[in-house]
From TrEMBL, chain A:
It comes from the Bacteria. One of its GO terms (cellular component) is plasma membrane. It is a multi-pass membrane protein. Its main location: membrane. Keywords: Cell inner membrane, Cell membrane, Membrane, Transmembrane, Transmembrane helix, Transport. This is Ribose/xylose/arabinose/galactoside ABC-type transport systems, permease component. InterPro entries: ABC_transp_permease (IPR001851). It is found in: Cell membrane. GO terms for molecular function: transmembrane transporter activity. The chain crosses the membrane at residues 26-47, 59-82, 103-125, 131-152, 173-194, 224-246, 253-273.
Automatic annotation (TrEMBL), chain B:
Its main location: other. The keyword Thylakoid does not apply. Residues 1-20 form the signal peptide. Belongs to the bacterial solute-binding protein 2 family. Residues 84-340 form the Periplasmic binding protein domain. Keywords: Signal, Sugar transport, Transport. The keyword Signal applies. It is found in: Cell envelope. This is ABC-type sugar transport system, periplasmic component. One of its GO terms (cellular component) is cell envelope. It comes from Rhodoluna lacicola. It comes from the Bacteria.
Length: 324, 385
């Protein structure tokens, strides 16, 4: 019963019973609000439309991939390969478009397919061969990056398709940049799948107590593989936004992106031990990182100090928000 | 019910952050100078001779000092010398072109290359690479240090093993010329800085503001570039105010530049320390709807396409990596003959503007100009003018 209680349709990380409990459960939102208030008071440029859209665009990749990573981590797994998958997917999309007469749809589908395939390999090796996902994805991190470097002899590949630029990078809808719209669509879709479908229930059950989940008839292997495929697909999708804005794919893109994604998800209250977490929390975690990156530059803080401050805020936010 | 209310409130708060801009007008930074009207002349941007000095204050020597007579060439061939090359990375065009210049020259002089290593910017790897190359006992090693301090001891082992040592760009710290190493061959980084500054200056109105996006790590090559940009402005445009922002993560520069420009809407143009950060910044600024003239250092395909298309990049101070490789190999041959090579041999900086982009690309890369650049030129119509 306990495991069921902690796995069902939960948006926030803990039951809210007392004031300190409330504080911990909502800490990520309080921290985000506090940062927004602080930077709004400290810099006249923070709360401008242009700047808020800057933050929205700058957090697109981390936010979109964090949605997928939430599934993986709630499953008590981890995916370190997303930065490399991001680079390889972007490269694939650019190369496919060069070969198929600039047909953007095929390029975009190829990018997502690369992510899905690597996600499947990550999940399959993890559950069928019993290799910890930390090691499997550390391996695919190197493999995907190596392939991205080899297929173009380390050179960037230029993209020249205006429709691709419009759809994934440049345009805006009702004044909102398309990258921000993509983020919102993925967050809403991820929210529905994780919190409103039986698949989501299975993800929580598998991460919370895999044995109990198996006894109740859940195919935990399939659930884990599907979660890896979701994060892979989203890494592929996120790479489309980036390559559309940059007008090129580079094999050295997004090295270390996986750490920002994992930090965002953990900041958002998703438990590294599985069974607990929310999509909205992960988005808030991503925005905390984005707001910090943005606000510290607006204040003119030197880049070395920025790293220290970001590190302190991340540790403080996770430890204060941690469930006892 | 209580929970769903909290969900709604939290979603609304986050959406509000993402969407807050809908109703308020955007603030856009833009150049107050009409960039369309400006035509840059590469010849007038090119510095007169070599501007900078060596890392230890050495006066620059010209590549002419390295030329060999026919008799000396014959002596080198008869010596049946061997060489090894320890690079910091092989992932960039610069490395491939430098290596090709070295290799072609060694081939013509009958010097056999017995090993080429790629340290992938990893100090430990480069130390291991150097130790491995020493065991092959080449007569000379040409190398660029990943880190001039951390690798110094490994380079001392090279000279202790009786192997001649030629540095690319900068010597390792604490090594003595000519006992420990025989020459440094480098581009004129200050000269490149001068080209970028002089070109950027054309876009900065009187009493305007120039922004510098700098690598915030103490690195000799980039320090030299930024130093000259600042000095050039203080000597020639004292009316211009300089504002700076630094980055340490070389793959995440775009957001930093976009945020810097947001916080400093008075910036009229940017100098960005090399081409990859510059192109990351171009992407971030384009997506933020901000247009600013940018100058940078090092010619690559991406910045060339942007320049050809009348985009953000207005001028580039370029190195000539192939010629640098040729000079490295000639310095090594001189050292092998026992001749004293100048401590610091510098190659002049090359100013690349839309006017000379196509021929500069061809001569620097030694290949045909890629179709993307030609297409961009044809569309914009600014190349060759």
């Amino acid at each position: 019963m306990n495991s069921k209680k902690s796995t069902k349709f939960r948006l926030f990380p803990s039951g809210v019973k007392s004031a300190p409990d409330f504080f911990r459960g909502y800490f990520v939102y309080l921290a985000l609000t506090a940062l927004i208030i602080f930077f709004s008071l400290a810099s006249p440029y923070f709360l401008t439309a242009q700047n808020l859209f800057n933050i929205g665009r700058q957090t697109t990749a981390v936010s979109i991939i964090a949605v997928g990573m939430t599934f993986v981590i709630i499953n008590a797994q981890i995916d370190l390969s997303v930065g490399s998958v991001f680079a390889l997917s972007g490269m694939t999309s650019a190369l496919v478009m060069q070969y198929v007469n600039n047909f953007w749809l095929l390029g975009a589908l190829a990018a997502i397919a690369v992510g899905v395939v690597i996600g499947f390999i990550n999940g399959w090796v993890t559950v069928k061969l019993g290799v910890p996902s930390f090691l499997v994805t550390l391996g695919t991190l190197g493999i995907a990056r190596g392939i991205a470097l080899i297929i173009t002899d380390t050179k960037p590949v230029l993209i020249s398709n205006p429709a691709y630029f419009q759809l994934f990078g440049d345009s805006s809808f009702l004044g909102i940049p398309i990258a921000v719209i993509w983020t919102l669509v993925i967050v809403i879709a991820g929210f529905i799948v994780l919190h409103k479908t039986t698949f989501g229930l299975r993800v929580f059950a598998t991460g919370g107590n895999p044995q109990a989940a198996r006894f109740t008839g859940i195919n935990t292997h399939r659930t884990i593989i599907a979660s890896f495929m979701i994060v892979g697909a989203l890494a592929g999708l996120a790479s489309l936004q980036f390559t559309a804005i940059a007008r090129a794919a580079r094999p050295d893109l997004a090295a270390g992106l996986e750490l920002d994604v994992i930090a965002a998800v953990i900041l958002g209250g998703v438990s590294l031990f599985g069974g607990r977490g929310t999509i909205v929390g992960a988005l808030a975690g991503s925005l905390i990182i984005g707001v910090m990156n943005n606000g510290l530059v607006l204040l003119g803080v030197s880049s070395s100090f920025q790293e220290i401050i970001k590190g302190i805020i991340i540790i403080a936010a996770v430890s204060l928000g941690k469930k006892k | 019910m209580k929970r769903s209310k909290s969900i709604a409130v939290s979603l609304a708060a986050i959406s509000a952050l993402l969407l807050a801009g809908c109703s308020s007008p955007g603030t856009e930074a833009s150049s107050s100078t009409d960039s369309k009207a400006i035509v840059l002349d590469a010849a007038s941007l090119t510095p007169n001779g070599i501007i900078g000095k060596g890392k230890n204050g050495e006066e620059p020597a010209s590549v002419d000092a390295l030329q060999l007579t026919d008799e000396e060439k014959a002596k080198v061939k008869a010596g049946k010398f061997t060489a090894a090359i320890a690079m910091q990375t092989m992932d960039i065009d610069w490395s491939r072109l430098t290596l090709k210049g070295i290799q072609d020259t060694f081939d013509s002089l009958g010097i056999k290359v017995v090993g080429v290593t790629d340290a992938k910017f990893d100090v430990q790897q480069q130390i291991a690479d150097l130790e491995n190359l020493i065991t092959k006992k080449p007569d000379v090693i040409i190398s660029i240090p990943v880190d001039d301090v951390a690798t110094a001891e490994a380079y001392k082992k090279v000279s202790a093993a009786g192997i001649k040592l030629i540095f690319i760009h900068m010597p390792a710290s604490g090594l003595k010329y000519p006992a420990d190493y025989q020459a440094v061959v480098a581009p004129d980084n200050q000269g490149n800085g001068e080209i970028a500054a002089a070109a950027l200056s054309k876009y900065i109105p009187e009493n305007g503001v120039a922004g510098i996006v700098d690598f915030a790590v103490d690195f000799y090559t980039t320090n030299q570039r930024t130093l000259r940009v600042k000095n050039w402005f203080s000597e020639n445009r004292p009316d211009v105010k300089i504002k700076e922002v630094g980055f340490t993560d070389t793959t995440a520069v775009g957001p930093i530049t976009a945020n810097f420009v947001t916080a400093n809407p008075d910036v009229n143009g940017l100098f960005i320390i090399w081409d990859s950060p510059a192109m990351q910044s171009v992407a971030a600024l384009r997506s933020a709807g901000v247009t600013l003239p940018i100058t940078t250092i090092d010619l690559g395909t991406e910045d060339a396409v942007d320049m050809a298309g009348d985009g953000y990049i207005k001028a580039v101070g370029a190195q000539r990596p192939y010629d640098q490789g040729v000079a490295e190999a000639l310095a090594a041959a001189n050292a092998l003959l026992g001749k004293k090579v100048p401590a610091w041999v510098a190659l002049p900086a090359v100013a690349v503007t839309p006017g000379n982009l196509l021929e500069s690309y061809k001569s620097i890369f030694g290949t045909e100009v890629p179709k993307e650049i030609v297409d961009a030129c044809n569309t914009s119509g600014i190349c060759g003018k």
